[in-house]
Design a protein that fits this description.
alpha/beta; 3 domains; 9 strands; globular
C-alpha cells in the first residue's frame, strides 16, 4: 500500500497492510524550526520541506496544513457597527483590544511582555489567547452584542488546500486545519475558569455561547470541505490533562486497549507517544519500551495510527526521533 492508501484505509474502516506510522508535524512547525534536525536545511518551500521531513524518516505522509482564519471568527472585520481598536500601553507590556458597537463596548487585554509573536501581535491570535488577562465575553449581555453586531462569516480563500493535495498526489493525505473546536472557540471569548463552571452556574448562557461557537466552526468547516483535503483537523487542546489531578488521571485515564473498548470501532485513535518528555529526554531503551507497550495495547486494532501526540519539542535530539521511527516501523510490521 502507498501511504495514502494505508492512512485512508484506517479512516475508512478497512484493514491496512500495517499500522500507519507518522509524526505530529505541521507546516507551522516546519517554519518555526524544531524538525530542522531532520531536514537540516529549509528550502523556503514549506510544503516541500514538510513532505521531505516525512520522506527522510520513511514514515507515512500526513500533511497537517494551516488555514488563514483569524479567531474569534470574523471578529477582525470592521463595519459601521463594529470597530476594532488595538492599543499598546506606554511601556509596551500590555495590549488592549476594544470593539465599539452601537449596543456597547467589548474589551479584552493581554500581557505581551517577553512574548515572541509571528508578525503583528494583533493578528497572532494563537499566541494572544494564551496571554490574555481580560476576556471579551463577561456575561450574556456581551454575547448578545456580538450576535447582533458582528458581521457574518466571510468567504475565505482556501484554494491552497487543493494545490497542496495535487502536489502530494498518492504519496499521502492532507489534513487542513479547521478553526478551533467549539470549546477552544469559546475559550477565545471567555476566561477558562469561568467557562469551566458555566455549565453548572449558568447553563442557559453556556448553551447559547456553545451554539454560537458551533455555528462558526461548522460554517468555516463547510468552506474548507469544498476546497479539498482528506481529513479535517480540528484543534481542541485547551481542555487538556493539566486541568486534572494526578489522582483523577490515574483513576480515569486508561490504557489504549481500554480506551478502544470505551470508544468503540467507529473512532480512529492517533498518537499516544509522549513527545514532551520521553521523546526529548528519554534514552533509546526508554523509547523502545514505550513503543512496544503502545503496539502491544493496539495489537490487531485496524483503526489506530501511531504518532507523537503533538508537535515535536524544540531541542529534541535527532537520534531520538530516528529511534522512535525505527522501533515503530519494526513493531508495525508485526502488529
Amino acid at each position: 500500500m502507498t501511504s495514502r492508501e494505508r492512512l485512508l484505509s484506517v479512516f475508512n474502516g478497512r484493514t491496512p497492510d500495517r499500522t500507519p506510522i507518522t509524526l505530529f508535524v505541521t507546516d507551522t512547525d516546519i517554519e518555526d524550526g524544531p524538525p530542522d534536525c531532520i531536514i537540516e536545511k529549509r528550502t523556503g518551500d514549506t510544503i516541500a520541506d514538510l513532505i521531505r521531513f516525512h520522506e527522510i524518516l520513511g514514515i507515512d505522509i500526513a500533511l497537517r496544513i494551516s488555514t488563514n482564519v483569524f479567531e474569534p471568527i470574523g471578529f477582525d472585520r470592521d463595519s459601521d457597527n463594529w470597530k476594532n481598536i488595538w492599543e499598546f500601553s506606554e511601556d509596551k507590556k500590555y495590549l488592549t483590544h476594544r470593539i465599539i458597537t452601537p449596543g456597547g463596548e467589548l474589551q479584552e487585554a493581554f500581557n505581551v511582555e517577553g512574548e515572541d509573536f509571528h508578525g503583528d501581535p494583533s493578528r497572532d491570535w494563537m499566541k494572544l489567547r494564551n496571554v490574555r488577562t481580560e476576556s471579551l465575553v463577561k456575561g450574556l449581555e456581551d454575547l448578545r452584542i456580538i450576535k447582533k453586531y458582528r458581521l457574518g462569516i466571510p468567504a475565505y480563500d482556501f484554494g491552497h488546500i487543493g494545490t497542496v493535495q495535487k502536489r502530494l498526489g498518492d504519496r499521502g493525505i492532507v489534513l487542513p486545519r479547521v478553526p478551533s473546536s467549539v470549546f477552544n472557540s469559546a475559550f477565545g471569548l471567555r476566561k477558562l475558569k469561568d467557562l469551566l463552571v458555566d455549565p453548572i452556574m449558568d447553563p442557559g448562557f453556556y448553551k447559547e455561547l456553545m451554539e454560537f461557537c458551533t455555528d462558526d466552526v461548522i460554517g468555516v468547516g463547510r468552506q474548507i470541505v469544498k476546497e479539498g483535503g482528506d481529513v479535517m483537523r480540528v484543534v481542541g487542546n485547551v481542555a487538556h490533562d493539566g486541568m486534572m489531578s494526578s489522582k483523577f488521571y490515574l483513576e480515569h485515564i486508561t490504557s489504549l486497549k481500554s480506551a478502544r473498548e470505551v470508544l468503540g470501532e467507529g473512532v480512529v485513535m492517533v498518537g499516544n507517544f509522549d513527545q514532551v518528555h520521553l521523546l526529548k529526554e528519554g534514552t533509546r531503551e526508554d523509547i523502545r519500551r514505550e513503543v512496544e507497550k503502545i503496539f502491544e495495547q493496539t495489537s490487531g486494532d485496524s483503526r489506530f495510527i501511531f504518532s507523537t501526540s503533538d508537535s515535536i519539542v524544540p531541542g529534541t535530539p535527532k537520534e531520538n526521533i530516528e529511534a522512535l521511527v525505527e522501533f515503530a516501523l519494526e513493531c508495525s510490521t508485526k502488529n
